[in-house]
Every structure is written in C-alpha cells, then in structure tokens.
Specification:
The protein has 333 residues and is of the alpha/beta class. The protein is built from 9 helices and 12 strands.
Amino acid sequence: MKPYVLGIDIGGTNTVFGIVDARGVVIASSSIKTKKHNNVVDYLDELHQEAQKLIEANDAVDKIHGIGIGAPNANYFTGQIEATVNIPWPTPLPLAHMVSERFGIPVAITNDANAAAIGEMTYGAARGLKDFIMITLGTGVGSGIVINGQLVYGHDGFAGELGHIIVKRNNGRLCGCGRTGCLEAYCSATGVARTAREFLEVRNEPSILRNLQIEDITSKDVYDAAIAGDKLAKDIFDYTGTILGEAIADMVVFSSPSAIVLFGGLAKSGELLLKPLRDAMDRNMLSLYKGKVKVLLSELKEADAAVLGASALGWEAKPIPSAPSTVQAAPIA
C-alpha cells in the first residue's frame, strides 16, 4: 500500500486538503476558497493545481493511495453531492468521479459528519470501538452511526441525520431543513444563540449578555458569560445539555452504542454542557442501557480534524469505473 492519502474537506467557505500518513499524522495541508469559482470545472482546476504543489513539495508524488472527500450532502454510494445550499454548483454533482479523473487516483466521498466518524474511528477517541455514535455540534448538528465496525449509510446513503430528530413536537423552532422542533434548532451553536435571545426576552434578571446587541449574540458569547459566572448563561447551557441528553438517551435505544463521541466547537464547553447532558441521559435512559454508554470528547485536533476525517475514507477508496453523468461547465446564473 502506498504510504499516504489525500484528505479533502469541502466547506461552504473553505476547502481544506492535506496529505496524511497511516498513523494519522497530517504531513502538510493547505486550502482554497470554495466559492471563488461559480464554475465547478474552474474550482477543480485550482484544487488540482494547489494539491499537486503540496504533493510535490512533500515528496509524495506517486505515493498517494487514495483520496477521501467530506462534503455536505455527499453520497458514499453514488459519489455525488446530491444537493447543496451553500455551494454554487449544479447538483447532483458526480464529484468523486471528477476528482478521480483529475488526479488519476481512486476517490471515496461521504458527508462531513460521516467523515468525522470515520476519522474518529481510525485516528481518534473511537479507536477500537465497534459501536458508537458521533455527534458533531457546530453550526448545525450532524452525526455518524457506527454499528459492528461499519458506518451506517442506509439504502440510499443518507442514514444518520440525527440532528433532525424532533425534540419539540409542539411549537418547536423552525429548522433550516424546513421542519420544526429539530435537535439542530436547539443544540447547535446557532441553537444556543437562539436560546439566548429567547431567554433574554422572557426573563428579567441581570445578565452580561444584556450588554450585547441581542441579534449578534453567539454561542461563544454565552460560553464566556457562563464562565464568568452569569446565571442566565449557565441556564442556557443547562437547557441545551438537557435537550441533547434526552435525545441521546433515545438514540441509544436504536443501536446500543458503547459510546457517544462529541465533536465541534460546542463540545468544548466542558462541564457546562456535559453535566446537564449526562444527568438528562441518566434520567431518561432505558434500564437495559444504564451505565453502559460513555460520553467521550473527540481526540482529533480541531485544525486537523476535517482533513483527518476525509483522509480516513481515502484508505478504502476504489477506482471509479465511469462517470454517472455529464456535468455542464457553465456557471449558475
């Protein structure tokens, strides 16, 4: 087996890519702007050019085993980005084939949360675990489910959207997916900010957060206030952790994981989030599973996590026999 893989994480703002060895060490990494090109062909030209520079500079020519890509709404089975909100290209987009064709290297692709789960299982806190659920707490709430050592994709490649289980059946918040009451609307970074605005409007006690423009409050502002001892901010974390813990107790019933692995900025809130989360898990856990499920924090370095998650997929990349469809080079109007 060749000694390296190339990991590519396609985000709405930046595309980060890096060369990774079998131990999970990021040898070198770089990035380009995702939205710089409305034409996907121009985007791929720049990605290929910059990645080749990185490969040549690190003596990795002819040493890349495969390429792994993590991207929003990417489908492992089809190799396509099925639909996007934040990326300016026509979909479905047969990206795995297009990248493989450019580089002459096998490519595997999946959505970003699944890539994080594979990365955690290969290099991080879930090493050696056969059954776990990865939950990413960022702008949204993503998840990857591993059962018997295999990532669950479902019949169509879209299994594991646990951020969109309904946690508030009545009068729930509108979610970006179009439904109401989703976990993501409460337990993402944006959900914490929404809770802060609601609490400030309906409660009267003093709070550091009242010194800020209410529409500009972020989850980081809430965290800073809570660390400073602000009661209202602490209550926001209690509220968020409780909802997440209740939801996790329900998730456990589905797949009986040995661990829940939390990743993302919000997971770094420490006991502010974890204590109410664990308490709610324990209160709501079916007796069969009590005391059996650990809550772990990701062990992947934040700076490397996206590339590591994507790269882990690269080790299993297989040659793609043919393109599923033809992509027009014309940009979207």
